[in-house]
Amino acid sequence: MDHLWVNARLATFDPRVSAPYGLLEGQVLAVEGARIAGLFPMDAPEVRAFRGDVTDCAGKVVTPGLIDCHTHLVWGGTRAADWEARLAGVSYTEIAKRGGGILSSVRATRALSEAELLKASLPRIHALAEEGVTCVEIKSGYGLTLEDELKMLRVARRLGALAPHLCIEVAPTLLAAHAIPPEFAGRADDYVSLICDAIIPAVALERLAEAVDVFCESIAFTPVQCDRIFTAARASGLAVKGHVEQLTNSHGAELVSKHGGWSADHLEYLDDAGVAAMAKAGTVAVLLPGAYYFLRETQKPPVAKLRAAGVPLAVASDLNPGTSPFASLRLAMNMACVLYGLTPEEALAGATREAAKALGRAERMGTLAVGKQADFLLWDVAHPAEIVCALGTNPLAARVVKGRAGDA
Ligand code: DI6
Ligand code: FE
Questions:
Q1: pLDDT per residue as tens digits for the range 158-184
Q2: Which protein residues touch ligand 1 with a CB less than 6 Å away?
Q3: pTM (two decimals)
Q4: 396 CA from centroid of ligand 2 (Å)
Q5: Max alpha carbon distance in the chain (Å)?
Q6: The domain 66-358 is classified under which CATH number: 3.20.20.140, 2.30.40.10, 3.30.420.10, 3.20.20.20?
Q7: Hey, whose CA ends up nearest to atom 10 of ligand 1?
Q8: CATH code of the domain occupying 3-64+367-406
Q9: Closest CA to 193 of 240, 223, 225, 161
């Protein structure tokens, strides 16, 4: 042990701790290098005998670092005009069919160099970090050519290498199957072949992504096409996940589960068979209430059924230029409570422990427990639920990543 964080109220989110939030009062968090080495009561002999660095948490609530397990935070351009059109009554689907929506972000993203794209993305990742995000998933999907998808993933990788001053881990995901690019209009299967035969192998070779995502939807890719993509992903050693049942039910969650996917995301139109398949496969449900809110959707994901079936519930921002244009995981957690009926404890678990599962990082992150990476946050709050409800101010007092403290 080389550093003790004393006088802490540890919201561990460790399922072995039965108190709400896994809360342990009056604790010492011991760090050795980049790992959590122990959790002790204040009067433990290990604490009394310790002669190294000590930080007094002064009774602050300490949580695991927040994990935003679903974002599209690298993009060019703006979709403000799309938003105006949607507010005036034009649907997301209609805008997409007119060549707007995702394809308008594709045009703007293709036009930017890697350096310009990095510059455009920096304020977004900074905003997430400032409110406590220590690990963020970033998808490609606004390039839709081999070169432009690789460009987006290289930007994601560079954003993750901005440590030590930013200190955020990036989990990159290939989402080449986000929309059918204009040059493949009417030839979607040919584009799927390009994804399977060229883009996935290139990304795997350069280790530019950990997982492959798809938009399985009436306005995007069919389950048969997504099945081909998942098969290619797994053959290249990549994990799979999917945007499924967001606007309609295509049985995408069953497909993701069949491939042992990390997560099925959105899920507004999920049916009972989808819930059962996810429960059986251990696939995480990633709830994205920001997109539900911005699309003024009225169909909610079947949260009660997912909970009853024991499907892990994660919460993410879905930060993207179209359907969820805000860089705040705290706001997404708040929406998960107000709009979807999660408890604040479930929302926080969804942005820590369950989000880690959705990124294949459950062994290393997501709870305060011995052996986990020492990513944790000190919050100036009297109750953990304040992290989720007290929006507009930032109660984050300190941020520790891999054992190293930075400014909040
Ligand atoms: N569903 C979403 O909510 C995002 N992608 C997706 O497949 C939206 C992306 C966008 O509109 O730019
Ligand atoms: Fe998304």
A1: 999 986 667 899 999 999 999 999 999
A2: 72, 101-102, 105, 178, 215, 243, 246, 291, 318, 320-323
A3: 0.98
A4: 26
A5: 71
A6: 3.20.20.140
A7: 322
A8: 2.30.40.10
A9: 225
